[in-house]
Amino acid sequence: MSTVLLQLVDALRSGAVEVVDLTQPLGPDTPVIGLPDIFAPSPGLTMETISRYDAGGPAWYWNTIRLGEHTGTHFDAPIHWVTGKDLPGNATDTIPVGRFVGPACVLDATEEVARNPDFLLTPAWIEGWEERHGRIPAGAWVLFRTDWSKRSGDAFTNLSEDGPHTPGFHKDASALLANDREVLGVGVETIGTDAGQAGTFDPPFPNHGIMHGAGRFGLASLCNLDRLPATGAVVIAAPLKLLGGSGSPLRVLALAPRL
Question: Is residue 133 annotated as part of the catalytic site, yes or no?
Answer without folding.
Answer: no
